[in-house]
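Quick check before the chapter quiz. The format below is the same one you will see on the exam, so make sure you can read both the input and the output lines.
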Amino acid sequence: MTLPLPQFTAIGLGDYLANTPIAMALPPGPPSEWTTLLHLLGLSALRARSDSDQEVFSDDVVRAMARKAGRAVLPDEQPVLLLVSPIPASTRLSDLVRPLLSDSSWSVRSKAALVLGAIGDVAQVKVLIRALSDDDNDVRRCAAEALGRLGSPEAIPALAAKGWGDSDSAVDAARVRALARLDDWALAAEHLAEDEDESAFLAVQAILEAEAQGSLGPVLDLLEDAEEAMRLALTEYVISRPERAATEGETLARRALDAGMDNVTLARLAGAGGAEAGEVLLEQLASGGWSERMYAAIALGYTGSQEVVEALKEALVDDDSDVRREAALALLRLGHPGPSAAILAKETSTSYDYPARATELSGQSPSLRALALATGRAPVDERVLLAIGDKKLDDDSRGIACLLAALHFPREGQGLLEAVARDDSRDVPLKVRRHAAAGLLLTGTPPRALGALHRVLLCHEGEVSGYPKGSVTPLYGHEGALAFLAGKDGDWPVRLDALRLLSAVGAAEDYVELLQHISRFDPDSDCRAQARSLLPITWAQRDLSDVLAQALFPTKQEDAEKTAAMQELAQLRPDLVLPLAERQLLSEERDAARASAKLIASLPADEAIAALLRERALPALADSSWITREAAAELLGMVDLAKLDEELHELAVEALRERQEEDDDSDVREAAEAALKALGGGL
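Here is the expected output.
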């Protein structure tokens, strides 16, 4: 389906970039001549999976495509940002992907082959045929799969020609599956190389015999002895012949069981036999081991037979939780949600993919149906907004819902997308938040109140060491927000990204105490290690780090231990301890503020101490925070003010009397009273 174009405007995009410190290179020409990779690909292609259930549009191939489109790609950018960033509207998708088949990275070459198959560009058959000779086995396998998906008879001679017996049996199996998709075995026979020692040749020969005999027998004969990759290829052939499978159901089920029914594909093979296969599978469900019972339950769901329903209901109370779950899912597949409802609710927490599978089979989620509509079968409606908050959906689906909301409902969806990206409730997965942030770019209006958080949401979790120096200029001015994220954000990848960005803009030395705290107390080991690596060399000694952590930040320690740590710090770095302690005196953490007061009082009384007391401690007695007022009172009571400065002594006594008599906090009044007694000014 055609996606609505993003509402890029020169002013709107400029405001977006100004509010969101992203270093983004824009294409030439006016915004009316821009498009995005998302629009070139479409959502159906974007969600494509390979035969081995790999993600086709992985991070590396999206980055490579963006570079081919002329987009300057920073090493720490999320692929979702690359998908929605402006590129020239004249860009042709195949022109971006075809050159990637010559990329130096085998991963990029293999994914590029899959992309060509996913986008259905039949004009690329010749380049994919050349990729069948690639040095890398994964590239060869993906090229074969892509040729099968393109459906062009032009590929059959290359797929069937001499060259079977690949060092990776999965490559030969991919060629067999591709030929099965193309479904012209007569043409394949004309080009098939005669090499009876190779399993792929034998598999193709068996398929040709099955075609000639009108029977699955020759293929089933190979199942037990074939390698797994070839067994899966043969399975795909059998499933593609449902009418024939239904007439040989019992034989088919027994052969599948004899082959070792150890995966869902073989369970599907057994289930393809329909009602006849059901009899065999019911025996397995009643008397097999737990794994046999589990795969029998899966297979029964694929038979389409209502005669197996009662047996599946009985399996809902099986001793094994895997059997119970798969029986419930099989009942859903057969159209019986009622009996399985209780088991679905009970077993949801025991399997990470179980809720998504149950939701998909039951078809009860309006948001899931909205996503299905959005990938090409009908116009998108407002239900897609519900999908963003549907916790039954996987993160990828919810992320795509964010992009759909931005494209189809930019006005209605903007507030929702901002709320998801900001995540005040701290319960939205990071991947969904990042898609919401990227979706805001597609709305054509600048975000409100996201600031540097928005930048971190779009930041990749990889290293930033390769960051071009000039590219982080827009981040300056957001160091405080990044520091807040590094210390407070609930998602460790965001904390880690924020730490790296602090380093990228050269702001690490301004947040020594924060880095010390993170290096000691952050619950994530990567964040602790990153914080330690960013500390200036003079602060990097472990003994000093421990002292700082104990002295400057609230822990479960007693005040005496904090004071001892502060005094030790004064011995290690006397030139730094006074300004640090002065800063902590105003801390909102009571232990830290009181420990700082004790440290200052323990230092030799001199002009610097007198200035600190006059300029900081006295004004702090009137601070709005009771913690600060209490710490200031305690500090004034611990210094011999009469010997240090007589005028300061008189001012302190007067201010402390006022706190003792009028302060609305009992702890402050008690601290003021104790200080007055120590200074000889008590009543």
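If your answer matched, good. Strands lie at 34-35, 87-88.
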